Amino acid sequence: MLTEKFNNFSVKYFNNTFMKINKIAVLITSFNRKETTLSCLKQLFNITNDIDVYLVDDDSPDGTFQSVKEYYPHVKLFR
Question: Is 30 helix (H, G, I), strand (E, B) or coil?
Answer without folding.
Answer: strand
